[in-house]
Design brief:
alpha+beta, Aspartate Aminotransferase, domain 1, four-stranded antiparallel sheet, 4 helices, 4 strands, about 45% helix
Length: about 150
């Protein structure tokens, strides 16, 4: 293909492509990807520790700093593979409790029962620990059986 033959109205915007390429080079050069992986592991570990205090915290999953915590109804009957039903109503209550504490989280997943954590890629250890602490408080306030 000759230079310029692939340009057109419905193809990629060259300026946006150059900006995206420069952004990726900067992220790699500054070690942001490795930092996000390390901080994501720290947050996921802290969130998994909350399960011991509150059985309504189901699976913690994700990659890097994109983490989801599925909230379940542990009082309901488990299905054939042992999974408890997702509890979207509880998740909405937890979301409101998080917001009251200054923590903004999204919801998604089946029945809107997965709390989504999407912090900035440059978040530090202190902030990660605070996020986990605030989330734990919110879950505890929303679920009376959580210690």
């Amino acid at each position: 293909m000759a230079a310029g033959a692939h340009a057109g109205t419905f193809r990629g915007n060259q300026l946006a492509m150059a900006a995206g390429s420069a952004t990726i080079r900067t992220l790699v050069a500054q070690g942001i990807v490795a930092h996000a992986e390390t901080m994501g592991q720290r947050l996921a570990t802290r969130l998994r520790q909350l399960h011991t205090a509150c059985p309504a915290i189901g699976e913690v999953r994700g990659r890097g700093l994109m983490i989801g915590v599925e909230l379940i109804d542990e009082r309901a009957e488990a299905d054939a593979v042992g999974a408890y039903p997702a509890d979207g109503t509880f998740a909405h209550t937890v979301q409101r409790e998080c917001l009251q504490r200054g923590l903004i989280v999204g919801l998604g997943g089946r029945h809107g029962a997965t709390v989504r954590f999407l912090p900035p890629l440059v978040i530090g250890e202190t902030e990660i620990d605070l996020v986990a602490e605030l989330f734990g408080e919110a879950v505890g306030a929303a679920h009376k059986q959580c210690r």
